[in-house]
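Training component of the fellowship. As part of building independent skills, the fellow (R.M.) carried out the full modelling exercise for a liganded target. The chosen ligand was magnesium ion. The inputs are recorded below so that the supervisory panel can assess the work.
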Amino acid sequence: MERTFLMIKPDAVRRGLIGSIIARFEAKGFKLIAGKLMVISDELVKKHYYEHEGRPYYEDLTTFMTSGPVFAMVWQGENIIKLSRFMMGSTDPEKAAPGTIRGDYATRMNRNVIHGSDSPENAEREINLFFQANEFVSNE
Ligand code: GTP
Ligand code: MG
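Fellow's submitted model of the complex:
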């Protein structure tokens, strides 16, 4: 079964949105198989967002992502990488449709509530960056 890495960003943790966001993925039929509240180190955020190094928004992105706790998760389900990205909505909340997570909860590109892996390769890479094998449970 396909797995993906989802992370509730510091803005959403601060705003008390963990429960509402998790509820959407549960309602969709996906299974949470690992999860933890954590503060990301500078080293980890650089590895996670390595593709964005050098972009004008990179400094703001990494500072924001280490500014408070995130809720890091691994979810499992059919076609979950593509479907979870649909549920999140566009990166820019100005373009994210109402009914999507960013469309409903975010107003700004650099405070956009949730991260989700965008490909099977990135899902595996990100899962391995954030989680060890002994942190997974079977949740059928
Ligand atoms: P993530 O799930 O966080 O990876 O977002 P994404 O996959 O929808 O977008 P992408 O990976 O391209 O960008 C990662 C993050 O960098 C985004 O969530 C934004 O917060 C930020 N970002 C990307 N492009 C821009 C930009 O043009 N301007 C600003 N301010 N932030 C950007
Ligand atoms: Mg991305």
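The panel noted the following from the submitted structure. The chain has a mean pLDDT of 97. The chain has one domain: 3-135.
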